[in-house]
Amino acid sequence: MNRVVKSILGAGGTVLSLAAASTANAQDTIRWGNISAAALSHMPSVILELDPDIAARHGLEVEIVDFRGGNSNCIAALLSRAVEICQNGVSSGMHAISEGAGIQAFATISGQYVEIVLTDDAVERIGVGPDAPVQERLAALKGLEIASGPASTTIYYMLQGMLEQAGMDASELNMRVLVDPVAMVEGVRNNQFDGAMWAVGSLGPTLADGSGVRYLLMSRDFPEIAQYAAVAAFANADWLESNPDLARRAREAVSDAIKAAKADPARYSKLLKEKYQPDLEQVVWDDAFEQALAIYIDDVNGSREGWDFWLKRMAADTGKDYSNVSYDKAVWKEAQSD
Question: Could you give phi then psi for residue 133, rounded to 5 degrees?
Fold first, then answer.
């Protein structure tokens, strides 16, 4: 059962020894921190709690600790041993490692889960439709006012990666900083800007009512980049060294959760929606869930190329030395794909 974050951070209790737990119980309990259990890109680990039989097959009981968007709180809980795992955005974990956190990525959960939605008026005005070649659609974005996250954020790095496919840069767009998806939806509906870029599903209401047009979808239009790690599970490096079997079983369990969702999407879509998005329009949920399945990473291994995608942009953006965040140092050896 999920627990409120502040109860974790304020408890001040001692973390139970996993070795002792395994002696007393048939299953090992893992407290799996998740920065946003309601976000589809983070939901594979949630399945382990909603369908405990999957975890049980690996001798585990998974307790999801939902940090409700608190990236830094999740990292802090991991470092203080209040949770065994912190599932976070890859760049958040990288920044923590660069600042001295002794953690490693041990499972890559999902790839890039973003889209650009334009207003129907903007699409009509630029004269390049959503079925045009990707290069033409990227070029058509020049000068448009697009609402999205600020520079130095994950979504901004993703935008840069998309635009590079056409030799473009974000400076060629008229970016409006906005991080409230509700405001984005209203902005698209009322033509307050030409479009928005955010996680798939957030702008779904505009697609449902026709005020928005799905113009660029990462998983469809940029399949190679889409598989680059966006969400990963991090653990303390010394915990991984001391508990390699437990870490392997945790990886296998979340991998099986992903495979189960892909094998029986109707069942897991229903379970997840009832728990986290009961009031969301079914048509919006169905579309978002379908797109999420495409970016879940079955073997939970992250590629060197995908890791370097982030390092390159972070180094260019901040000018910092990220040598201690290299793939070989920051990704657990058993989670590396090469």
Answer: -55, 150
